[in-house]
Amino acid sequence: MRHRVCPLSLFAVIMGVAMVLTGCSLIGGSSSESKPLPEQATTGGLQGAEDKLDTLTDKRISRVAASVVLAENAVSKNEPSNSDIAVAKSELKIARAMTGEPSKADLDYANARAQKMLESSPDDAQKIVAKGILTAEALRKEIEFANSRYEQEKAKKQADFEAKLKEKEIEIQKRKMELEQERIANDMERWTWVGISMFTVGMLLTFLAPFPMLKKAGMALTLTGIICGSFPIIGSEPWFKYAIGGTIGLMVIAMLVQMFFLKPKCEVDKSSVDISSDSSGQSNDNH
């Protein structure tokens, strides 16, 4: 007895295989197109470290100045007591601990100045002190001017860096868009080639297959190829994913209903053929 294949079941199998093949090709293509992007630079760490350094430096200078002022006030009295001298010594030790050891050249310069003051008259000693104060003030102003120039240069460099960083961010976003467009284009090209392949095989089966069942399968494969080939045109539409999802869901429901609740047409035809054969056999026996 010759068994017949149900065209609806064959078409469902062909559609399922086509969807699996195209889905696997798209998944593999999407992952292979991913490329690493450069990591964005930031200035928060450097700026925070510099601000902290400036704060600690100002704090050290201020505390050294406070200790020097206390020591000066303690020994500037007409008759400083032992307590005043002890306060001056302790504050100077604290100031020295915060400033650290001087260079040999500066220490020799200060010793020479002190020796000169001891060897001079009171008026000349006052002049030496006044000259030292002017030199110290000039150095402080020079440091303040240099710091101001440094802040200006830093602000300029920071602005240039932020401008380049902004350009880099724009370049990264542009590259992301280009990669996404390339991925979509490659996916669409795969859909097109899958559709062309199915359409070609389907047409060959339709016109060259020796059996009617293969011709029907070729027509189904041709239709599937047309659907896959048209995906690049309609696949970007916002409603397409809902339409394809709903279609697949309806097909699955229809196949389940046919398998469990309805008797397939192929089996009905087979039963009718068997009944007719049995009837004809019984009539021949009666005759």
Give a verbal description of the structure.
- This protein has 287 residues and is mostly helical.
- The chain is 85% helix and 0% strand.
- The chain has nine helices and no strands.
- α1 runs parallel beside α6 and α2 runs antiparallel to α3.
- The protein is rod-shaped.
- The two termini are 25 Å apart.
- The relative contact order is 0.09.
- About 6% of the residues have low confidence.
Q: Overall mean pLDDT score?
A: 76
Total number of beta strands: 0
| Portion in strands | under 5%
Alpha-carbon distance between the termini? 25 Å
The structure class reads mainly alpha
Gyration radius, rounded: 47 Å
Taken in chain order, the helices and strands follow as HHHHHHHHH
Number of helices: 9
Main sheet properties: none
- The helicity comes to over 70%
Sum up the overall morphology in one term: rod-shaped
Keywords for this entry:
287 residues; mainly alpha; 85% helix
Short description:
The protein has 287 residues and is mostly helical. The protein has helices spanning 7-32, 44-75, 82-99, 104-119, 122-208, 212-229, 231-234, 240-260, 265-286.
SSE layout and pairing:
Blueprint: H1 7-32, H2 44-75, H3 82-99, H4 104-119, H5 122-208, H6 212-229, H7 231-234, H8 240-260, H9 265-286
Helix pairs in contact: 1-5, 1-6, 2-3, 4-5, 5-6
